Amino acid sequence: MATLTPGFSGADIANLCNEAAILAARKNKSYIDTDDFEMATERVIAGLEKKSLMTPEERKTVAVHESGHAVVSWFLEGGAPLLKLTIIPRSKGSLGYA
After folding, report:
1. pTM score of the predicted model
2. Chunked in runs of 10, what are the mean pLDDT values of the chain (98 residues)?
3. Which sequence positions are flagged as catalytic?
């Protein structure tokens, strides 16, 4: 979990654990697994997934943009490692993130 939560405070991690538990309960699971923590991390960092429809051209534009972040991150010395890249729109205003 430490890899998914750089810079999180104790309260942030508690919130993340609660979100993971809620996600697991919604799936009628009796335990919380790694997938639940990953989905909870996305939810805490970027917000809820928006169900807005993007045109293929918009999706391509967002994909190229986020890929640019990944390439720059790869080549920057001392940069933080890339944990995830997505083009799924989120409620906090982003169309994707890296």
Report:
1. 0.62
2. 77 91 94 90 76 83 86 80 75 59
3. 66
